[in-house]
Specification:
With about 140 residues, the protein is of the alpha+beta class. The chain is built from six helices and three strands; from the N terminus they run H-H-H-H-H-H-E-E-E. It has a three-stranded antiparallel sheet, with no helix packed on it. The protein is elongated, with a radius of gyration of 22 Å. The chain starts with a helix and ends in a 12-residue tail after the last strand.
Amino acid sequence: EIYNKYIDKPFLFKSNILNIFSKFKILNILDNIYNKISTYINDNHLRQVFSFHSLLIGGNPFQTSSIYTLIHSLERKWGVWVPKGGMYSLIKAMLKLYKDLGGQIILNTTICNIEVNKNMIKKVYLNNGKFLKTSLIISNSDIIN
């Protein structure tokens, strides 16, 4: 019910996102998974069973938002989908498409400096002394970097 009413909607404008934020208090999704499960289940062992799925995403049931409790109902409603060949086959297909479109991927390289002119990226200087002329950088580094 929560998914259909509040989440399964397009977020085309900032106001759409703000609208869902206003429902957070009603939905109590800022609470953690374990506490949310505890409002429905008294047995501690069953609480652990129904809280474990946050561990699969690297979360902690005592810290992960209870919005993830929707996973059970979504999987029950639509099932679980996986790409043929596993998740890595999806990564390989995306990489191939990106390269076929002319994209370049550089891995395990440290960026020393980014030259910016008029709020536009001009050059990226690498730790090996080389530089790249580019107008776009996509990074998946940790925020600390």
